[in-house]
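dumping these here so i dont lose them again. two proteins, back to back, each one seq then structure tokens. dont judge the mess
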Amino acid sequence: MDLGAPGSGDGLWRGPALATGDDGAGRRAVLVPALGFGVLGAACFATSGALGWLAEATGAAAPPDLSPNDPTLQRSLSMQATDHAPHSRTIRCVILDWAGTAVDFGCLAPVEAFVATLAEAGLTIDTASARGPMGLEKRAHMRALLDLPAIAARWREKTGAPPDETLLDRLYARFRTVQLQVIPRYAAPIPGLIEAIARLRAAGISIGSNSGYDSAMMATLAAKAAEAGYAPDVVISSDDAAHGRPFPDMAWQAAMRLGAPEAARCVKVDDTTAGVAEGVNAGMWSIGVTDSGNEIGLSLADWQALDEAERATRRAAAADRLRASGAHLVIDTVADLPDAVALLESRLAAGERP
């Protein structure tokens, strides 16, 4: 586990300077790099129709406004009113990704579904390429795969035309069917997850989650995970938000539903570069996960079969990529999460902010 070096916080809600991303509908938007408000402020900012995007400058559509009577906003208002120490040096919630972070060691289920779906269409793709856009909403992920030069060239050879929206719609519909069939085989919790969550809850920390999976996929996965003892307090699916990763929508929604009073007291945990960037863009502490995640991409058995030197080499390369996406800390697996959160609390106590 590499817990990293402390950064220099200034108390602002801060993401990468003018970080950009695709919202899954082919639009580009720019994230405001510094906003001086917490989760409650984000909710109130949403009611103005802005929510942190320079929509007018980029042409990106803003997420739907929150009504003053929206339960999410009301819960945040209630928590803000009852939290008499808004700058307390304690973490209030941890928001975990699913495949590769909490369940499905190696993040195998999405890869299998993408590879199989493309193969049915006569498009062969290797697993490394299929993993490239991991963390995005799944339709955006399929779009990114079709945009790969090799895939686009093969489709052009096959049909005489480049991949288009009609193909994307057809392949994504088939992908959803395949993914729903595959998910139950990859729902086992990462070793140490159940114990880690118990320790965090014992410390008064709420557990949220989000995913690039849509609500139907998440219903299947969450039910299987619950059978194994993992049931987060909040589950946010990709179709619950106007924008997918690396935009902060899903992380903000989870934090507001959990009643977190400010971003600096929230932790996002993810095994993908897009998921790490989501946490940073949300103004939260962002923790990357190496051994069980997409950046290494091996099943538990295959990972354990490697000698220690090879594991160390692959772990270091994965950690470098996660840190390059903004991770404040990098851990081996979710089993290390309670100690990592304790370290973040010590950094908060020293006056550091994410």
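---- next one ----
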Amino acid sequence: MVRTLAADGIVLVDFCAEWNGQCKSFGRDLNRQAERSGEQGSRPRRRTAPRSIPSATCCTPVTNGPRSFMGFASVVFDYSGALNAARRLWGLAEELETMMAARESARDAAAVGFVGVFATQFGDRVAQERTDINNAIAQVRTGATEWAAAWTDAMDEQNRVRYARAYQYSKDNQGLIGHLDGVERPPDVIAVAVPTAPMFTATSGFQYFGNMV
């Protein structure tokens, strides 16, 4: 590192986030370039980053690369896939409820005239099954709402990215009067509502900030 800092010329420092598709794509290009240059051993070793969407994405300039514009990278997220997952999970919960209702109907028919110790055991087992199914249904529905919430978080984050791009554009293109009066800010970011069951329909598109996206 001492030799690198003391040397003349440009130094490229590679920071990698394993969860980020852009880093993975850009990293392959860097590896190929390093192999061609014969400097593979001198590249800084990557560090593993947290596998989550960073809250400061909209405020962190990045090098131009895939899905990057005005120095701010887009959120990498499967928006339609998330809502489809929410719908499918909610549908699975409905199927479990329908199945259990049919089993309880069969239980009621079988219990007619059924008395004694075995009848009591039978009733206890059916009741336990209902409890287990209710727990499963609750967990599946929780998974569905979590996918919807993840969609909302990604939408909000992408809107913040779009806001940052619009603000940067306004800052870069203002004239002398603009410099004296301050940067004209884009409209405030509007929070996106969470899609609701059972359809989990998208509640909003991406917010529009003037001429910038």
